[in-house]
Write a structure and sequence with these properties.
Elements (H helix, E strand, L loop, with lengths): L1 H21 L25 E3 L6 E3 L23 E7 L7 E7 L6 E10 L5 E11 L4 E7 L11 E4 L2 E4 L1
Antiparallel strand pairs: 1-2, 3-4, 3-9, 4-7, 5-6, 5-8, 5-9
Length: 168
């Protein structure tokens, strides 16, 4: 019986050492935080928790305010405005490319999509296509759109270009 009491005392002391080493008895977890946000911890309505040892209650430690994050050095870029597109020359047998001039009204470079419809003499669309071009800020660029690969160049009478070059 004497050994049994000694073993029980050793077990109780060992449990206390383990609790002290893990920080449980001080109300802190292994990482030094108070565990107030941990799931499974029980708090009373006044912000106190039952003590791990079962004797009394333990007040939750106040949490520190979050460290403010650095704001970006540049403001968020505004979306690009659409540009304009104007037909310079329609495709034909002598030159199977439509030439379009695209203007960028923005203060930074942009990528613009241009829509072109190649039509026959009756006004029916033979080829409907779009192409993209990069244009420097407050500048213009020339876009040449090929139609030779379609095999319908001889049917093209005129071109219709959408005057709005969509910013992408």
């Amino acid at each position: 019986m004497y050994t049994r009491g000694r073993r029980l005392r050793f077990t109780a002391v060992s449990a206390m050492v383990v609790l002290a080493l893990t920080g449980f008895s001080s109300g802190r977890d292994q990482h030094g935080s108070d565990g107030g946000g941990c799931s499974g911890s029980r708090q009373d309505h006044d912000g106190s928790r039952p003590s791990p040892s079962g004797t009394g209650t333990h007040r939750a430690q106040p949490t520190r305010p979050a460290t403010p994050t650095a704001s970006p050095s540049r403001a968020t870029a505004q979306p690009l405005k659409n540009g304009t597109a104007a037909l310079v020359r329609c495709a034909g047998l002598d030159d199977p490319y439509a030439t379009v001039e695209v203007r960028n009204p923005n203060t930074r470079e942009g990528l613009f999509t241009v829509k072109i419809a190649f039509k026959d003499r009756n006004g029916f669309t033979v080829i409907d296509t779009s192409d993209q071009v990069s244009v420097a800020a407050k500048d213009k660029a020339t876009l040449r759109v090929p139609v030779a690969s379609t095999g319908r160049v001889d049917a093209i009478d005129h071109c219709d270009v959408d005057p709005k070059a969509t910013a992408d």
